[in-house]
Write a structure and sequence with these properties.
The structure holds three protein chains of three kinds. By secondary structure, chain A is mostly helical. Chain A is built from three helices and no strands. By secondary structure, chain B is mainly α. In chain B, α1 packs antiparallel against α2 and α2 runs antiparallel to α3. The chains are: A mainly alpha, B mainly alpha, C mainly alpha.
């Protein structure tokens, strides 16, 4: 069938994830606004979550034999954890942004060059 | 199968388009709103992968909670809606090359997925009968019980940390704006007077000014900048 | 009694430590006292006063303690009760190479301990008067204490390495003290000259020590296995080494090593051709000239030769070289001293000449005589220098004898003691110089006739130039313009004390009185381990030599009177004129400095310039090339350090990508 490649398979999800990840990477490295950097970071984390979920769906362990059913949700479980961590990261990150803003009166990444020796 | 295909392409297009807007749209508000679109599309992709529960969590935590936090952040800081890139064109090109390399590296790995056996029919049957949420719950509360609890502690710590970092300070003085004040004995008498003047006016203004710490910091800064130094004697 | 004696022996290491503590305390005091006592209103002089007194008391007290500690050993030595005691402590360990530090009590070290502490004590007392108004008074005492520490440590050394360490310390003290008035150009130049000259000698000494160790390391290992309490390169071990050395080692290496080791004494004891630093060193304060450059430090070279004498005794060639160099030094020093008009320079060349006598005695195989002369010379030469200091002090820092004269009446004590010293150094009338010089001449007679006659003639010159200085300074009428001050009691008292040993010590230790003779006291120990040079009978008996040298000395003295004492001035002008070329040659100091300058400017500088060009062009080019390459690459890498997180993220991802690619290549 000519439209076979349109049918979503594992590679489709992986390519989608890769695309989102790279877009997020570009955002993180080039944005001038701190908040946009944070948003791009969230995009990257979501891209990873897509990977996790897709792998869970397509690469399940041999669940059929015995009590394997307990293990084959690891992908989704890890997605949950990533979600948790990224939520925590976003909260702390925004708190830092606010503290930074109070100190420098700006959210311009170019002003945050104090790491320079 | 057709429905799945259509939904996938809709979600994928929406996610990529929204992500591009997040990164490249001039207005930060638009970016934030587009982020919601991206999150919701990704939630749809989760559904396509038999991750119903995750899709719901994604919608609630990312699509609503996180975006609202980000909108609040924009509110607090967004007096300058910076939109342009923080890099020169040459650097932008370099970053694009890096990103392209990352993409080029990941792409073959992704295409490798064609070789993977598709979801077994038996698993699909389990999803149909039991639903993935129940399975995920079983996994989380059996195998991943300890990480699950640790995640809750992490969230607690993050909450406390976020409060502490963004809070002004316990004493009411903004520690982030404390400046070094030199020993006043080395200053000229006029300078000392000037310094005393700023502190008294500061005390007065502190009482009724809501943003007293900022005033104090500004006063300190002004005093430090303006006071003429005399060479230290008798050292 | 026994336990008291034991503890005295065990604590002899404190003798050098007293002055070291004094030095440390003075350094601390100079830093602390001004801070605690100083008020902004008080002057420098006011707050300096307690520091001055404290430093003087500390240094003199330390030396006095050292002298007290030494005296029982001297008593034991004189009553033949002294036993050789040696204690070694491991100091530096590298594998099975263990260098030791320790102390050794034997006749030689006791003799030197006594000389150093005794003369130091009186010179330090004298210093109080001489340096009383100097701004560096406290610093001067600090340096004196440092010198005493170094010198006493050298005297007590048990092995060549320890001695080398203290040898260099002595050199540093000497450098500091010569350059004490470092703002004067001549003093600054003199201290550098002394240091460089000594470096030449010390370089040879170090190479000598190292090559001795190189050749005999295995022997030392087995020897120390049998005698674990002794030190590597220890002096008693060297005697045993020489006795057991194989024939091949005795044939050539031992001579070369002995000569290399001798290079150290050659510089330190101002032997030709490394003698030119000593007269220049007179730019230092006079007490220093008396203590370091007449009595003690320059004698360290003689002492070192005495210490490793068995090594020298095994090599006739080295002995001959030493004897010839000593004799030449005696002649050169004496002839130059004939012409000097600066009183201190004249005494300095006299010191040079007398050191030549001692060294010649070493070379002639009579080390006892050489050390005896060292012993007596230390007293009267220190006294002579102190007298000159007294004269200089009284004449407002005038050193030129042509502007003195007739000081007999104004400085009576100085004049009398100077006369005593002059008689003693001339070897007249049973004074101490008479006995020691006779011993040297007796030894030289047995060794070689030319050396004997040269030394005898030099003894006559000694009398001539010494009486010349005496006549020019104290007799006749005053020719200077400065007002002559009175003598200070604190300065003449040490003179009077030193006059006693200058007269008596020679007779006391000549073997004629109740005490044993110096040579039996010392030599019995020196010859331990094999030597052969007992004084053989020559043409003259000992008594005849005594008469001979006295006669020569008297002739020299009378000649000096004839030339320089106006009432007796009967030397015809023609003779004086005939002597002029010789006089000029001597007055130009045999052109040693000129030759050295020419060598340095003509020969040495060519090499130096060539290597400097090489160094700047090639070596520096390489080094700076490396540096600038690193600098440039650092500048490149620096651009990555923008301080912005985003750059860092990009770089991290770039690295990640590269690593992943490499990983892929690796796994496929």
């Amino acid at each position: 069938m000519m439209t076979d490649f349109l049918t979503p398979q594992l590679p489709h999800f992986l390519i989608l994830a890769t695309t989102l990840f790279v877009i997020g990477l570009v955002g993180v490295t080039t944005s001038r606004n701190v908040i946009r950097v944070l948003m791009s970071l969230e995009l990257m984390l979501n891209a990873v979550n897509i990977n996790m979920v897709a792998f869970n769906n397509y690469l399940s362990p041999a669940y059929g034999s015995g009590s394997g059913a307990q293990f084959f949700m690891s992908g989704q479980a890890f997605a949950i954890f990533i979600l948790t961590v990224s939520a925590a990261e976003a909260a702390v990150g925004l708190a830092i942004v606010i503290a930074l803003y109070r100190k420098y009166k700006t959210v311009d990444m170019e002003q945050f060059s104090v790491l320079k020796g | 199968m057709l429905l799945e295909t259509i939904l996938f392409w809709v979600f994928a297009t929406a996610a990529v388009g929204a992500a591009l807007s997040v990164v490249f749209h001039p207005s930060i508000i638009y970016s934030a709103l587009m982020l919601i679109v991206a999150f919701l599309s990704i939630a749809g992709v989760f559904v396509l992968n038999n991750a119903d529960f995750l899709a719901v969590v994604q919608t609630l935590v990312y699509g609503v909670g996180l975006t609202i936090i980000i909108l609040f952040g924009i509110m607090f800081t967004g007096d300058k809606l910076l939109s342009d890139r923080s890099v020169t064109k040459r650097q932008l090109a370099a970053y694009m090359v890096v990103a392209g390399m990352a993409f080029a590296l990941l792409l073959p790995a992704a295409l490798h997925g064609y070789r993977v056996i598709p979801t077994p029919a038996a698993l699909a049957a389990i999803y149909q009968t039991e639903g993935s949420t129940a399975l995920l719950g079983t996994a989380l509360f059996n195998t991943y019980a300890l990480p699950f609890e640790l995640a809750s502690i992490l969230l607690l710590i993050a909450m406390v940390g976020a409060i502490l970092i963004s809070k002004r300070s316990l004493s009411g003085v903004d520690e982030t704006s404390i400046k070094y004040t030199p020993n006043q004995s080395h200053l000229t008498p006029e300078a000392q007077e000037a310094l005393e003047g700023t502190t008294t006016s500061l005390a007065a203004s502190k009482a009724n000014h809501p943003n007293a710490a900022d005033v104090e910091a500004a006063a300190n800064e002004a005093a430090v900048d303006e006071i003429p130094f005399r060479e230290p004697v008798g050292v | 009694m026994d336990s008291w004696w034991m503890s005295l022996q065990q604590h002899v290491a404190w003798v050098p430590v007293y002055p070291l503590l004094a030095f440390a305390l003075i350094v601390l005091l100079r830093g602390v006292l001004p801070a605690t006592l100083g008020k902004e209103s008080s002057t420098w002089q006011q707050w300096n006063a307690p520091t001055k007194t404290a430093s003087m008391l500390l240094t003199v007290g330390a030396t006095f303690l050292g002298l007290l500690h030494t005296l029982p050993f001297v008593y034991a030595l004189l009553t033949n009760n002294l036993h050789v005691v040696e204690m070694n402590q491991p100091w530096l360990q590298a594998g099975d190479l263990v260098l030791s530090i320790g102390y050794r009590i034997d006749p030689m070290s006791v003799m030197m301990l006594f000389v150093v502490t005794f003369i130091s004590l009186f010179i330090q007392i004298y210093t109080h008067g001489y340096m009383g108004h100097d701004e560096g008074y406290a610093k001067f005492y600090g340096y004196l204490a440092l010198f005493n520490f170094s010198m006493l440590g050298l005297v007590l050394s048990t092995n060549l390495f320890q001695m080398y360490v203290f040898w260099e310390l002595v050199g540093v003290s000497s450098y500091l003290l010569i350059g004490f008035w470092y703002t004067r150009p001549d003093a600054a130049a003199a201290c550098i000259k002394a240091f460089l000259m000594n470096r030449v000698g010390d370089f040879g000494l170090l190479i000598g020590i190292l090559s001795l160790l190189f050749f005999t390391y295995g022997w030392w290992q087995s020897y120390l296995g049998v005698h674990p309490s002794e030190a590597l390169l220890g002096f008693s071990g060297i005697a045993a080494l020489v006795a057991q050395a194989p024939a091949w080692f005795k044939s050539l290496p031992i001579g070369i090593i002995a000569f290399l080791i001798f290079m150290g004494p050659m510089a330190k004891s101002a032997q030709v051709p490394l003698h030119t630093w000593l007269p220049d060193a007179m730019a230092g304060p006079t007490p220093i000239s008396a203590l370091i450059h007449a009595a003690t430090m320059v004698a360290a070279g003689i002492y070192l030769v005495g210490r490793v004498y068995p090594l020298f005794a095994m090599s006739p060639n080295a002995m001959a070289a030493i004897a010839i160099i000593g004799t030449v030094t005696a002649v050169v020093g004496a002839t130059i001293a004939l012409t000097q008009t600066d009183i201190k320079k004249a005494l300095a060349y006299s010191t040079c000449s007398q050191l030549g006598f001692m060294m010649a005695a070493m070379g002639c195989g009579v080390p006892g005589a050489g050390l005896f002369h060292l012993f007596t010379h230390a007293f009267f030469k220190a006294m002579l220098f102190l007298c000159s200091g007294s004269v200089i002090h009284a004449c407002d820092d005038e050193q030129d004898m042509r502007h003195m004269g007739g000081l007999w009446s104004k400085l009576p004590v100085t004049a009398i003691t100077y006369l005593i010293g002059t008689i003693a150094i001339s070897g007249l009338f049973l004074t101490s110089g008479f006995w020691s010089k006779d011993s040297i001449l007796a030894g030289a007679q047995a060794y070689s006739k030319p050396i004997f006659w040269t030394l005898a003639a030099t003894a006559g010159m000694t009398a001539f130039y010494m009486f010349r200085t005496f006549i020019m300074t104290f007799m006749g009428s005053y020719r200077g313009s400065a007002h002559v001050h009175h003598e200070m009691p604190v300065m003449v008292a040490p003179l009077a004390v030193l006059a006693v040993p200058s007269i008596a010590v020679g007779w006391a230790l000549s073997g004629q009185g109740v005490l044993p003779s110096f040579e039996t006291l010392i030599t019995g120990h020196l010859m331990h381990g094999g030597g052969h040079h007992a004084v053989a009978a020559g043409n003259f008996t000992h008594a005849q030599i005594g008469w001979l040298s006295s006669g020569i000395g008297l002739t020299g003295a009378l000649l000096a009177l004839a030339f320089y004492w106006k009432p007796l001035n009967f030397v015809p002008g023609a003779i004086q004129k005939a002597c002029m070329p010789l006089y000029t040659f001597f007055a130009k100091k045999w052109y040693f400095d000129e030759v050295y300058n020419a060598f340095v400017s003509k020969v040495y500088m060519v090499f130096a310039n060539a290597s400097s060009t090489f160094d700047r062009g090639v070596i520096d080019g390489l080094v700076t090339g490396v540096g600038s390459t690193i600098d440039a690459s650092g500048g490149l890498a620096r651009q990555l350090q923008t301080g912005r997180v985003q750059t860092y993220i990009a770089v991290i991802f770039f690295g990640l990508v590269v690593l992943s690619l490499l990983g892929l290549l690796w796994w496929h």
